[in-house]
Amino acid sequence: MGSSGSKKRKPSHSQPLPKVGTTTENRRLQHDEREAVVENFGLRGGAGTAAWIGIVALLALVVGAILVLVLI
Q1: Cα–Cα distance for residue pair 25/8, rounded to 1 Å
Q2: Are 22 and 16 in contact (CB under 8 A)?
Q3: More reliable by pLDDT, 58 or 39
Q4: How far is CA 46 from CA 33, 43, 50, 51, 53, in A?
Q5: Which SS3 state, helix, strand or coil, does residue 28 take?
Q6: CA distance 48 to 68
Q7: Higher pLDDT, 8 or 17
Q8: How many angstroms separate the CA atoms of 41 and 35, rounded?
Q9: Are residues 17 and 27 in contact, defined by beta-carbon separation less than 8 angstroms?
């Protein structure tokens, strides 16, 4: 038994997890998996400088290949 001034065990904003096998729980798991995949590919958050450099280099390569094909 705690005193009236003691800290609560759970914050008031916490919610229990959904039951296993329910649609809500399956959606939550799929969302977590998608987030993990995106994180693994480095696409999470703001795209870094290296990602933008890669995109620009790829576009330059494609444009260069098209120009070579047109000039031949």
Answers
A1: 27
A2: no
A3: 58
A4: 19, 8, 11, 10, 14
A5: helix
A6: 31
A7: 17
A8: 10
A9: no
d(CA 18, CA 26): 9
Instruction: State the pTM of this model.
Output: 0.41
Q: What is the pLDDT of residues 4-13, one digit of tens each?
A: 667 767 677 7
DSSP code at position 26: H
How far apart are the C-alpha atoms of 62 and 57, rounded to whole Å? 9
DSSP label of 22: S
Amino acid 5 reads: G
Tokens of 22: 């329910």
CA distance 59 to 68: 14
The pLDDT score that the predictor gives to residue 72 is: 84
Q: Which of the pair, 68 or 17, is modelled with greater confidence?
A: 68
- pLDDT of residue 69 exceeding 90, the answer is yes
